[in-house]
Amino acid sequence: MRNIILIIIGSILLGFSYNFFLIPHKILSGGLSGIAMMLGIITPLNTGLINFLLNLPLLIIGFIKLGKRFISYTILSVIVASISLFVIPVREITNEPILSSLFGGVLTGVGIGIIFRSSGSSGGFDIIAMLLTKKRDFPLGSLISTMNGIVVMISGFVFSWDAALLTLVSIFATGKTIDMIHTSNLKLTLMIITSKGDDMKDKLLKNLYRGITMLDGKGAYSGEKRTVLFTVITRYQLLEVKKIIHEVDSHAFVDVTETIEVIGMFDRGQK
Q: What pTM value is reported for the model?
């Protein structure tokens, strides 16, 4: 229930950010929502409706291919954000585009950061990137940055290059804010030391699309046998994994470190 409430709050913040700061100045956010904003500006259709329709096929595919809890939270976020964009009026808070770009980007980052911390996402390019990285070990951050770059280019051709640069400022502010609220690590390595190795392995494999390596360990002081599990996850999965570990073995020792690069297969059954 706590995650659901936080996702609703974060998604409503997105609606305020877009309609109060970005859309009045033709500034786009990153991701698929940026395309929805652009179409909402140049067509008579509401941005909220377009955002929902663009995300709908991705949500269906993601529900089949990705974790059910993650996609369920993402569906909630997309629905609430789309309703917020539909209900909240488009109103210019400040007539300074640069201020709108910065504050809109920061407020968007706060909303998305809250959603990430609640084990969900705002949909769009995040789902596309995760589907692609599930098949091949593409760098998730680079994929999202490339797709956001396409949004910036489209903004320049459709509106103006001033609007494109302001969009770039907005996306940069959003990214920095998300990193402050959530985590700047795109991939994380987990070392889990537990006395319930098989239970931990089964629970993690059931909920993650990641490989796990198991080693036999022994406590230097106690002399008791332990199982050591190694796995690499994306930043989106950290909170969910922590909950799983706590449910299986609340006394497990867990070391979480930043992973600069993963060489080799990144999916279940490859480790």
A: 0.65
